[in-house]
Design goal:
Strand order of the largest sheet of chain B: 1-2-8-7
Strand content of chain A: 35-45%
Strand order of the largest sheet of chain A: 1-2-8-6-5
Structural class of chain B: mainly beta
Radius of gyration of chain B: 19 Å
CATH topology of one domain in chain A: Immunoglobulin-like
Distance between the termini of chain A: 68 Å
Largest interface: A-B, 44 and 56 residues
Largest sheet of chain B: 4 strands, antiparallel
CATH class of chain B: Mainly Beta
Oligomer: heterodimer
Number of strands of chain A: 10
CATH topology of chain B: Immunoglobulin-like
Chain lengths: 133, 136
């Protein structure tokens, strides 16, 4: 018998430097798995309702930001009777400790999960010669 | 990743104030999150199920019970080093009591961008019938 999966409440993000987002509505922090495989870093972020068209990925210096908008509209003419989740945005940033080869970043969205492949750039040979006094 | 068990106080409140006649299963830790809409004799239920394959989702309707269950499988990866593991995997099941008896043969389901949408119509024999009053 596999472990039963239960849900944490979706985590609202904390305002960055006390600044709010311009877009109203709730903003969630997506749950992620991050792992390294060979020379690549993979990020998988759960963003239900987000498609490849409604996600932005930005790498500035070494801060990677993922931002998705949940495009999920209420059925027309229907009345909401019960609710666990609200449409909103997903936002999360990571500081990468490795240099990333920006040109080879790959991103896909499948079944509401964003998958990012971040290849580490090959370290330059920079040997420091220690001079003796 | 062990599952963080947090109570859904908000849901309980919603249940009491918003819609009598709907209730959830006993499990107070719920997965997946559900939204439900109503119009006349149709209910639309949406569930957030990111990262699940269609084949791993089961939907069943019996009387006034709608059950959404399945198994969220984790990828088996070799030679990896995790930095973070926040996503949760395993079996799940949620039961929603509908305000009517459903017509199981006309239930429709779609799955798009990690959101399951189930449309459940009321059974024809469950619909109220107008009784004509005979006059002498």
């Amino acid at each position: 018998m596999a472990e039963k999966v239960t849900e944490r409440e979706k985590q609202d993000i904390k305002p960055i430097n006390d600044a709010e987002l311009t877009r109203s509505g709730r903003t969630y922090q997506p749950d992620v798995d991050i792992y390294e495989q060979n020379e690549d870093i993979f990020i998988l972020a759960e963003m239900p309702g987000v498609s490849e068209k409604s996600v932005d990925i930005n790498l500035e210096r070494n801060v990677l930001t993922i931002n998705g908008t949940m495009k999920e509209e209420s059925p027309e003419g229907y009345e909401l009777a019960y609710s666990n989740f609200e449409p909103g945005n997903y936002l999360r940033s990571f500081r990468l400790s490795d240099e990333i080869d920006r040109d080879r970043i790959e991103a896909t969205v499948n079944n509401g999960v964003l998958k990012l492949k971040l290849p580490k750039s090959q370290p330059e040979q920079r040997k420091i010669v220690v001079k003796s006094a | 990743m062990l599952l963080d068990k947090r109570k859904h106080h908000e849901i309980d409140k919603l249940m009491e104030s918003f819609f009598r006649g709907w209730s959830l299963d006993e499990n107070q830790y719920v997965y997946p999150g559900l939204n439900a809409w109503k119009k006349d004799d149709t209910i639309i239920v949406k569930a957030e199920l990111p990262g699940i394959e269609t084949d791993d989702i089961d939907i069943s309707v019996t009387g006034n019970h709608l059950v959404i269950s399945g198994n969220k499988k984790s990828e088996k990866l070799k030679d990896i080093e995790y930095h973070r593991q926040e996503r949760r995997y395993g079996e799940f099941s949620r039961t929603l009591f509908l305000p009517f008896n459903a017509d199981p043969s006309n239930v429709e389901a779609t799955f798009r961008n990690g959101i399951l949408s189930v449309t459940v119509p009321r059974a024809e024999e469950d619909k109220p019938r107008k009784i004509a009053i005979k006059t002498n």
